[in-house]
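Subject: Arsenite methyltransferase

B.,
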Amino acid sequence: MADAARDRTVTSVYNDVKEYYGKTLKQKSDLKSNACVPSAKPVSAYVRKVIAEIHPDVVAKYYGCGLVVPECLEGCRVLDLGCGSGRDCYMLSQLVGEKGHVTGIDMTEAQLEVARNYIDYHMQRFGYKNPNVNFVQGYIEALVEAGLEDKSYDIIISNCVVNLSPDKSSVLREAYCVLKDGGELYFSDVYSDARIPEHLKANKTLWGECLSGALWWEDLIRLAEEVGFCKPRLVSASIITVGNTELESILGDYKFVSATYRLFKLQKGLEKKPCLVMYNGDITDSEESFEFDAQYAFKVDKVMEVDGDVANILRNSRFSEEFTFQPQGVNTASSGGCWAKPNAVSVNPFELVQQLGSASVSPSTGGCCAGQESCCN
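Prediction pasted inline below.
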């Protein structure tokens, strides 16, 4: 059982969260802290247009942190963990298209009632003959028990929900089970700079505000790899300020960050070999460049060197058709030519925030071509 359940049972945590998000919070302004912050990654005009199509009642009842919008979604099957009122599901419904499908799962019936009430409204607005969205009541720690099939989803997203779970390892294990090979868990959440003690976890308000249930970021890395995921890829991070003097005094010196990670499920035993890749520019809303994570930003028709982990991810996921790969067996260190190098960034989200705020981080389009535009043109 997870650490948080030592002092409180899993059932009591579930009940507290249902109470907080089903009854205590009536609208977003009822939140008592700044834990729900905008995404560190700018929202494109394309995504803003998609969100504008969602009914105001659904948006008003949404209490998520940031915004998670994975790329290359057309035709995919997507699962939203802790979907709440369904804002992200209806956003994704437009991005996967009528041939794709989105499932939202949440344990709070009051939130699901809002989501379900607007299925017909959104399908008509999007021009779909048949719904490509459904909502399931259940626990994110027990996806199979809720009726979701193993290896049935291309992508799983989650938006500021994993921290509310009393059993994070089960969330990751279940996500791993229902993902297809090559699938991805792409999620934003709150992380702490150290393990949170039990007396803070027992505070219902701190837990409901997504603070005392936050994982120490190093524990996420460990748990993800124990479950079987590839090493987590850090996409973005931003510091959270609590903004409530009473809660700040209870929390003491603990610090928090909102961070987005990508976790991929790949077959075991793949050889890790760096290679050169070129982005083809065919991903919707990323036609000129594709920001894979904080380390790798690919420009269309520009060659970039990737490490063995990223090479395997790109070759064995939904991104495989979006890149041209240098033939196997060519040594990137000796093949000459000119290509971009990845950013040298920290895997620590707190350090990443500091790095991104300084001039010490070189653009990923640098490498041997930095300052020499004619070199690769």
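Residues 10-24 form the longest helix (15 residues).

T.
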